[in-house]
Amino acid sequence: MSAPAHHPVVIVGAGQAGLSVSWYLGHADVDHLVVEAKTPTHAWADARWDNFTLVTPNWHCRLPGYAYDGPDPDGFMTRDEVVDWLAGWLDTFDPPVRTHTTVTRLRQTGHTGFELTLTGADGDEIVTSDQVVIATGGYPLPVIPPYSSALDPSITQIHSEQYFNPEQLPDGAVLVVGSGQSGAQIAEDLHLAGREVHLAIGNAPRVARLYRGRDCMTWLADMGLYDTPTQQYPGGKAAQEKTNHYVTGRDGGRDVDLRQFAADGMQLYGTLTDGKDATLRFAPTLTAALDKADSVYNSICADIDRHIEANGIDAPPPSRYEPVWAPQTDPTDLDLAAAGVTSIVWAIGFRPDYRWIEASAFDGGGRPMQTRGVTQVPGLSFIGLPWMHTWGSGRFLGIDRDARHLADTIVDGLRTSAPRLAAVQ
User: So which residues are the signal peptide here (predicted)?
Assistant: First the structure.
């Protein structure tokens, strides 16, 4: 039997994060293999709804050797525009990607080195590697609560990653569960399509789209928030665990105001706690959740005010959000049949799944223990994780920097004669 094929570096996942590491390794002449279960950057086309837009301005879109240079840097690319933009990037280099192949097992071989089981159409294959980069995304498994199976089977249930448009759902009202970026925007998508929408909200904060003449995310970038290392970020670990602020880039970008949705007829509830048959129960948290989200909104605006004042920037005058609607009571139950709800969209996030990795690199919650992507397991690293180094990690804005650092670390670890990657342009 022949020895397994060996690659100095194997990258698991060909999304923009894994391919960014590949870009730098390629420019340093480091032999490596990228293994992808489907096709490069497929998630943008396959796991985004039809009316999806970026929530970060186009100028945030930067990848190694490639940056957005279109006519609308302060706009927000649609799903299809992002797919085209990424295709343009892939045309600029030739990463060594093996597609339609899944890494089903990764184990250490002694103190250094790894053995990977690759599963494809022709069966299993073993390869070995000195270094492995996990670029499979932060949290790949969709979360659906266990009581979902106890609900009336006539109710259609899908996760947010399966939602594409209102037409795929049966006629009738829709319950969206979750008010993070996906939940809030899917609720708006259904609402704008004329569907009756019920929305169960959690503790997600919100942010203004435009404030004092500029996009809030542009202000925050100027203030250094996206460049602040995780250890120095205000609020520490608690801030990093929070759901991302809800806002939208749709139709040129605007606020997502759940109170305005309610004033226009959307039914709002607090946190969904359990359900059985056609009855759902909610915690009485709606009022507090709306107030907290608005407080964060105004707090961010106040931070921008202080930045403008401290730097003597000429800008339009400050303002504060004032509620346009408030609940009379916090609803605690919903009869799906009586309300005509025929479908539920679960938008309550994802969880990690690294069960295929046999290495002591994870905390009690299954999350990688890493510093700038590097773990205590020699040769094992991660890329594309939220808060891996800064708030910008996991976003287009931070991927290039994270990939450059990680690839440079890999080159040093391999003790090759490749040039320092900091010099690669």
Answer: none
Distance CA 20, CA 234 (A): 28
Query: What residues contact residue 218 under an 8 Å CB cut-off, 6+ apart?
Result: 57, 59, 74
Q: How far is CA 322 from CA 8, 152, 186, 285, 298, in A?
A: 58, 39, 24, 20, 9
Strand partners, 99: none
Q: What is the pLDDT of residue 240?
A: 54
* Other C-beta atoms lying within 10 Å of the C-beta of residue 226: 18
Alpha-carbon span 339 to 283, nearest angstrom = 19
Rounded to whole angstroms, how far apart are CA atoms 25 and 411?
Answer: 8
Domain that holds residue 42: 5-139+352-423
The pLDDT tens digits for 244-259 are: 899 999 999 999 999 9
Q: Residue 96's domain is classified under what CATH number?
A: 3.50.50.60
Q: Which stretches of the chain drop beneath a pLDDT of 70?
A: 1, 138, 233-243, 415-425
Please say which residue of 346, 377, 412 terminates a domain: 346
Which pLDDT does position 137 carry in this prediction?
81
Cβ atoms within 10 A of the Cβ of 263, count?
13
Q: 237 and 340 share a domain? A: yes
Instruction: Name the 3-class secondary structure at 241.
Output: helix
Tokens standing for 379?
Answer: 């040769």
> Residue 422 has what pLDDT?
44
Pair 195, 170: CB distance under 8 Å? no
- Sign for the CA dihedral angle at 358, 364, 365, 371 comes to negative
Compute the distance between CA of residue 295 and CA of residue 310 in angstroms, rounded to an integer: 22
Quickly count: other Cβ atoms within 10 Å of residue 52's Cβ: 24
- On whether both 224 and 122 belong to a single domain, the answer is no
